[in-house]
Each structure stands twice: as structure tokens, then as C-alpha cells.
Amino acid sequence: MRAFGYQRAASPADAVGALTGHPEAAYLGGGTNLVDLMRLGVVRPSLLVDVTSALSGEITETEEDGLLVGAGMRNSALAADPRVRRHYPVLSQALLAGASGQLRNMATVGGNLLQRTRCLYFQDVTKPCNKRAPGSGCPAIAGIHRDLAILGVSESCIATHPSDMAVALAALDAVVYVEGEAGRRALALDDFYRLPGDDPSRDNTLSHGDLVTAVELPPPTDLSRLSTYRKVRDRASYAFAVGSVAAAVTVDDDVVTDIRVAFGAVAPRPWRARVAEDALRGHPLNREAVVAAVAREMERASLLPDNAFKADLSARIAAEVLDRLAASGRQGQP
Ligand code: SF4
Q1: Is residue 275 within 8 Å of residue 115, measured between CB atoms?
Q2: Percent of the chain residues topping a pLDDT of 70
Q3: CB-based contact 111:29 (threshold 8 Å)
Q4: Which H or E run contains 232?
């Protein structure tokens, strides 16, 4: 491992100042992904700026009755918060589906958003990888790609984003607050992540030195209260998703009045399934309709031999969770 400097930031402005002019410096939160990548030699920062004292680790209520979650909040604390569990169950469930108890106790909300892909080639410095070493190629396309993406991919990269939490935040229309050299700005989650295109090295729209300071959840609604997260993985716990769905739905006389569907493990970012949502909104909710709506979403998919199953898997998960949510809604159990 390369020798590196370490300093502790006292405030977001202090942290941003510490990275300015240091292109090889990086922020350190819980370290549950960054330290692994440093050990593997995937990233080699010259300086770590510890932001755990600079960021809020708490939730505050906004004037509109939403929640502002400090980026330094630990994943386990966010999952356990009674307001989150009651009004945004999809978020609590997604957090608890991620990693292990020990990792959730360390990992921060900001770090969760910014974690890197677990593509095997990205983590192996002896292999080419356009994301880690731009221009070196993408061996996953002709190689091991069973866990990789089918939507939003390019010829340069088919990596998936690994966060469960981010999939729930996509379904909730969360907003990410960022502090940078130009001051503070808010980014809709849609605008926070980017697709690989011909530059897979960047997972998001942040610039060097930008610091995620908070995530805002919009005011709770019947829709957010009737939301859930379902994750399919190769073993019962402590595994990344093979497929996942964050969903929320309200129905009236079995007709969908509002709906949110976001897929995980199928794209380089949380994938908000707006085509499927539009196909279902205003129509009766049943298994056949959900499968047909997801099939329309997947018309844009690029399927490879070993990951093609994800299109059908996503449809099956969505059909199951939406059916269950609608049944809960009929029984008045948001
Ligand atoms: Fe690298 Fe992306 Fe290809 Fe994986 S899929 S090897 S991360 S370029």
C-alpha cells in the first residue's frame, strides 16, 4: 500500500479546502469501501481527509416535514430511526439488506452513495478495466459478467452500482446536498449518478473536492409509507444483489393511482423504471400487467449470455412486491 497522509476536517468547508489543490487526496468516512480498495491497490490516495467529524450524523426535520439525513450518519442508525421505519420503510429495509451488521455500524450515508462497483476486474489490478485504468478495455463483456449490468451500459463498461440504499432513495425522489469550491448545491438523485458512456471512470457528476453533506427525503406520503425493498442474492445475507426492487404503489379500486419502481443490480446506477411506471399508472394492477410493463422497460436492455436472466428476474421481483403492497393497501396497512 502506498504511504499516505492523514488529516481530520472540522467542517465541510475545512474538508473541501483540504482537498483543493490536492488531486490525489480523498475523503475518508467509515472507510468500509475505500480502505478495501486501498489494500487492493485499486486506489492510491496521497492524503486521506477524515470527514467523520465534519459531517452531521443526525436527522433533522425540514420545514416541509421531510427529513434531512446527515451524510455522516451510520447506515445502522438510519435504518433504525423510527421516522424512517414508519414513513419510508423502503429505505430502512434496503439499508438492512446491505452488508453485515458490523459494516452497517461503520458505513456512512455519504459513503454508501459513493461506493464503487464490485466488478471483479475493477478490483483486480492485474486485469484491464476501463473504469480503473481508462482505455485499457473491458474484459467483463466477453468474460465474467453474470452479476453485471443490462441497462444503461456502454461498450466501455457494464458495471453495476452496488448500493441497496441508493435504489430506495431513487424510488423516494431523494435529493443529495453537496458542498464544493463553488458553495452548496442540491442534486436530485437522478442527476447525482451518471452512466458510463465512453468515460466509465466517473460514477457520478461530482467534481474532485465535492463533499456529500446530506440527503433529503421529501415529506412522507401514503405512497412512501406503502413502500418496500426486495433483494435477491446468492445467499441469505452479506451478499450484493443479483436483482432488487424498491417499490411503492397506491391503488383505488385496484387501479394504480401512483407508483414508484426502481431496480438495483441491473445498471451502473440505481435504475428508476419510469417506462414501467407510466405503463402501470392509471391501469389495473395485476401480475401480467407488471410483467408486461417491465418488459417495456427492458426493451432498452443489452443482454449478454450470463446476465440476460436479470430482465426476467427483475419483472418477477416487481410483480411480487407490487402485488404484496397492493394487498396491504387494500387492507389499510401502510
Ligand atoms: Fe471495468 Fe466496467 Fe468492464 Fe468491470 S464492467 S471490467 S468495471 S470497465
Answers
A1: no
A2: 99
A3: yes
A4: strand 227-232
Which are the contacts of 142, defined by CB distance < 8 A and separation ≥ 6?
none
Quick one: which H or E segment has residue 228?
strand 227-232
How far is it, in rounded angstroms, from Cα 17 to Cα 11? 10
Q: Which three cell numbers stand for residue 201?
A: 471512470
pTM score of the predicted model: 0.97
For the segment 115-132, what is each residue's pLDDT rounded down to a tens digit? 999 999 999 999 999 999
Q: How many helices (H) and strands (E) does the chain have?
A: 13, 12
Question: For residues 72 and 110, is the Cβ–Cβ distance under 8 A?
Answer: yes
Our answer on whether the CB atom of 131 is closer than 6 Å to any ligand 1 atom is yes
Q: What is the best residue among 136, 158, 199 to mutate for testing ligand 1's pocket, by most ligand atoms within 8 Å of CB?
A: 158
How many Å lie between the centroid of ligand 1 and the Cα of residue 191?
22
Q: How far apart are alpha carbons 212 and 185 in whole angstroms?
A: 10
pLDDT at 334 over 90: no
